[in-house]
Every structure is written in C-alpha cells, then in structure tokens.
Amino acid sequence: MTDLDGPGDHRAKGRGDGPEAVAAQITDAVESLTALWSIAAQEASLRLSPHQLRALRTLQETPGLNLTSLADRLDIGLPTASRLCDRLAAAGLLERVPHPVTRREVQLRLTAHGHRVLRDVADRRAQALTTALKAMQPAERAALSRGLRGFLAARRAAVPRGHRTDGPRAHR
Q: Distance (Å, rounded) from C-alpha 15 to C-alpha 1?
C-alpha cells in the first residue's frame, strides 16, 4: 500500500509503487468497491440482479433502444434480452412502445417507477461510498482524487479516438 509520511507527502514508498504492484492494489480496491456497490444495490427498495440494473442503466442513458440494440450493448443474446425485458416490464420498470416512424419497431423506455428505482440505487451507492470516504484522512482522499484524475486522463490518452472505453464491447 501507499505510505504517507505526513501532510503533503503523497509519494509511494518502497517496491509497492511499480505498475504491477499498483495494479494489484487497484484490483483489491475494485473488488471491495464492487462488493460495496452490490450490497448498496441489494438494499434498494426493489432488488435487481446486476444484469437487470445494467439494462435499466443502458435504457436510462439511451432511451428508445430496440431489443436488438439493447442486446448488443449488453453483449447478450436476443432471447436472453427478451426474457430480461419481459421481467423488467412485468415489474413495471420498462415499457415497450411503438417507434414513432417505423411502427413495426418497438422501443424500450423506462417507466417513472424504473427511474425511481435507479435513483434509489444511485443514492444508496453514493451514501455507501461517502461513508467509506469519510473514514479516510483528508490527505488520503486528496491523493485518491488526484490519482483517479491521473488514471482517467492516462486511459483517455491511450485509447484511439472513436473507441468506446466504458463497458462491454468497448473494442468496437
């Protein structure tokens, strides 16, 4: 782990500052964050699987997708996407509406209930993360923030223009 000698000194010490060692530390942190994320989501008013949450988030970000587009974005088969949407529709979280131009096509949209559930999950996740961050020293939070900004900038710089990097099928 990173040793902080005191206020203002955020340099990593010893052998733990190489890319491989930091990658291992990040792996541990991501696993911990994933557990925190999952627990917070399961405490929401309506328990949803990670696949269901991803589908809802995808439709929130891109309303009006058709079933084929949703399946492609989730990197799942069409029958699986159809069953997933059936369950979400039965729970009142999404609706199927005719496309305004091509009436044979069906668009998927979140219902008001679907939006409320996603807000509830997001609020619970933010609260859980805030609780963990409050337990850190201010210098540690500042170092984490700087490190995350640096990581994101390096990641963006390493990815050719036009390539998605935010989820499955990012290589497309």
A: 10
Domain covering 16-146 assigned CATH 1.10.10.10 in the classification:
yes
DSSP secondary structure of 100-119: SS-TTSEEEEE-HHHHHHHH
pLDDT tens for each residue of the chain, 172 residues long: 444 444 444 444 445 788 888 888 889 988 988 888 888 888 877 788 889 999 999 999 999 999 999 999 999 999 999 999 999 999 999 999 988 888 788 999 999 999 999 999 999 999 999 999 999 999 999 999 999 999 899 989 988 765 554 544 443 3
Intra-chain end-to-end CA distance of the chain, in Å: 35
CB neighbourhood size of 96 (10 A): 13
- Helix, strand, coil percent content, the chain, rounded in steps of 5: 60, 10, 30
Domain boundaries of the chain, sorted by first residue: 16-146
pTM of the model: 0.71
